[in-house]
Design a protein that fits this description.
There is one protein chain. By secondary structure, the chain is mainly α. It folds into two domains: 1-39, no CATH class; 50-164, no CATH class. 65% of the residues lie in helices and 4% in strands. It has a two-stranded parallel sheet with strand order 1-2. Strand 1, helix 2 (26-31) and strand 2 form a beta-alpha-beta unit. Helix 3 runs antiparallel to helix 4 and helix 5 packs parallel to helix 6. It is found in: Membrane. This is Cation-transporting P-type ATPase C-terminal domain-containing protein. One of its GO terms (molecular function) is P-type calcium transporter activity.
């Protein structure tokens, strides 16, 4: 943290160089990563809080999208193998994705950030965006969605049900 020319080497060497105020020298501004314009260090806490909220929502959105797409892939694959018919066409999948993107984004935007976000450990820059827990949840949720769909609608989306009726 600094504001003068003599602080420039330290600002450049630091993981995150902070410059307090806009009165700092141009050299210090160029070497720093973050410039706190209002001279209030509490602004950094607010930025971190909102940043963690955005990162958390991005993870939730990715998990939602991947779950829906994997479930659709499994349903199409199983039905195509068993009946040589594809229940969801490309245009239907595009509509599903459009609705999922819109509703998912609106739902996450309406969610308010919570205080417990600051209790979590920070995420390193080399950490994966999709964590092991997310992969586990994603696989279980997609599997359940696909299995329930095939259980309750399998006969109507495949030719097997029509062959059994004959």
């Amino acid at each position: 943290m600094g504001d003068g020319t003599n602080d420039a080497p330290a600002l450049k060497e630091a993981d995150i160089g902070l410059l307090m105020g806009d009165q700092g020298t141009d050299v210090a501004k160029e070497c720093s990563d973050i410039v706190i314009v209002d001279n209030n260090f509490a602004s950094v806490v607010a930025v971190l809080w909102w940043g963690r909220w955005i990162y958390n929502n991005i993870q939730k959105f990715i998990q939602l999208q991947l779950t829906a797409n994997i479930a659709a892939l499994v349903i199409n694959f199983v039905t195509a193998i068993s009946s040589r018919n594809v229940p969801l066409t490309a245009s239907q999948l595009l509509w599903v994705n459009l609705i999922m993107y819109t509703s998912g984004a609106l739902a996450l935007a309406a969610e308010k950030p919570t205080e417990d976000l600051m209790e979590k450990d920070p995420v390193g820059k080399n950490e994966p965006l999709i964590t092991k827990d997310m992969w586990r949840n994603l696989i279980v949720q997609a599997q359940m969605a696909a299995l329930l769909t095939l259980q309750f609608k399998g006969m109507s989306i495949s030719e097997v049900g029509e062959k059994l009726k004959e």
